Amino acid sequence: MRYLCVYRPGVPEGTRPLPEEQAAMGKLIEEMSKAGVLLATEGCEPSSKGARVRVDQGKYTVTDGPFPETKELIAGFCLLQVKNKDEAIEWGKRFLAVVGRGESEIREICEYGG
After folding, report:
1. Which residues touch 61 (CB under 8 Å, ≥6 apart)?
2. Do you find a cis peptide bond into 66, omega within 30 degrees of 0?
3. Quick one: three-class SS letters along 23-64?
4. Which of 67, 73, 74, 103 is the most buried (most CB within 10 A)?
5. How far apart are CA 101 and CA 36, in angstroms?
């Protein structure tokens, strides 16, 4: 089963991790890779470099960042291949232990086709 884990930070946008936090994250990513569960992971640039696109009845609205609602900001993601949701949650907890603050939304990827 594949799960998308979206990270929303508990610190102000643009806060850079300390060198020891970066090292701990590198170790976790290496461990996830060796365990064969990590399919992809990336961090996001600040929202000031982004845009939001909305559609309502065929009319598109584009809003350039930055976005003021920090609780809605996405700072990064990872894509996991695990046995079940419980395993995805455990990896999510380990990630949050490294970053120290914030939340990770964990969503199963729909598998279509036949």
Report:
1. 53, 54, 55
2. yes
3. HHHHHHHHHHHHHCCEEEEEECCCHHHCEEEEEECCEEEEEE
4. 73
5. 26
Token pair recorded at residue 86: 């419980």
> What is the rounded CA–CA span in Å between residue 40 and residue 58?
33
Give the model's pLDDT for residue 114: 58
Q: Rounded to an integer, what distance in angstroms lies between the CA atom of residue 49 and that of residue 9?
A: 17
Q: What is the pLDDT of residues 34-44, one digit of tens each?
A: 999 999 999 99
2-108: what CATH class? alpha beta
Q: Answer whether 61's CB lies under 8 Å from 53's CB.
A: yes
What are the residue ranges spanned by the domains of the chain?
Answer: 2-108
